[in-house]
User: What shape does this take?
Amino acid sequence: MNDQAGPRDRIVKAAAALFLKRSYAVVGIAEICAAADVRKGTLYHFFSSKAQVGKAVLDWHAAAFDRQFELAERDSGQIAALVGAVTRVQSGIEDRFGRIMGCPMGNLAAELATTEDELRVHLAGIFASWEQRLAVACRRASEAGELRVGVDPERMARALLAQIEGAILLAKAENRTAAQIANEVDELLRLYLVAEVTA
Assistant: This one.
């Protein structure tokens, strides 16, 4: 089984890079196989369809984001640290490709939500888990007295997720940087946090 882990991993990583650089719709199985240096039979040994490759790519990206979230939570558990985790991931993408390529989840959501229901449902689950993670941090901040009076931690978490995804999308369209994404999200945070926390 271990000898099969190499080609599967290459397939997922190759597909992830191709989907980021181009799009899910235009990248074909043959192109993924060529980039991964595997035969089609090898790909179909691991994945029954292109949609299954897409799900594996989503899970691979989600795991990378989750690792950054976990590191941030270990460091401080603060909302700003969790949001900073997203910036670190985007900085890594920027370093690799020379520019912001968008959020892998956001890209696929925009492209496939109305055409590939299987992937839409999978994406929705990933977004829900991120929102829940943010909600936990927002509730902790509320309990610590760090949020302004009247701020609902659950609604704040959803707004943060939407702001992060929107900032990444605009950065991709406007050829901006990961640092600018962080600045925009920090500006939103200031609307929720009491002055002492933002000072």
The CA atoms of residues 8 and 46 lie 7 Å apart. The first helix runs from residue 2 to 21. Confidence is low (pLDDT under 50) at residues 1-5.
